[in-house]
Amino acid sequence: MCIEDKSLRVLLVDDQDDVLNMMHLLMQRQPYAVATANSGSKALEVAADFAPHIVVSDIGMPEMDGYEMMSNLRRMNQISPFKAIALTGYEDSAQGERAAAAGFDVHLTKPVNWDELFDTINQLSASA
Length: 128
Known about the structure:
The protein has a domain at 1-30 and 42-88: Rossmann fold (3-Layer(aba) Sandwich), CATH 3.40.50.2300. The protein is 44% helix and 21% strand. The protein has helices at residues 17-27, 40-50, 66-75, 93-102, 114-127; strands at residues 8-13, 32-37, 54-58, 83-88, 106-109. The two termini are 24 Å apart.
């Protein structure tokens, strides 16, 4: 986990360490405090202390997928309300509907368009 001293707290979750590291490096150029987790269970631990404003998570992870992780995060009473972005390799309405049912606010398709991701983060943080 890495945390920086900035105002908007973003939690990044992905089981692929290289993807997680790349996302973290790109997020460092933004005015965000960033924490990372490489699994759904680790994300639950980190969120309890980090209290993210925005969660950006991969869906296809072993052990606990992004849907289950998000459902668990939404039930955690010790964290404030937050916005969430699902990242998946599938662009179809069923994935978007399932992401929304699990508690994600937005569904984006991989490979990620970084400008779109940053715009989405900024829009979600403004509406929070």
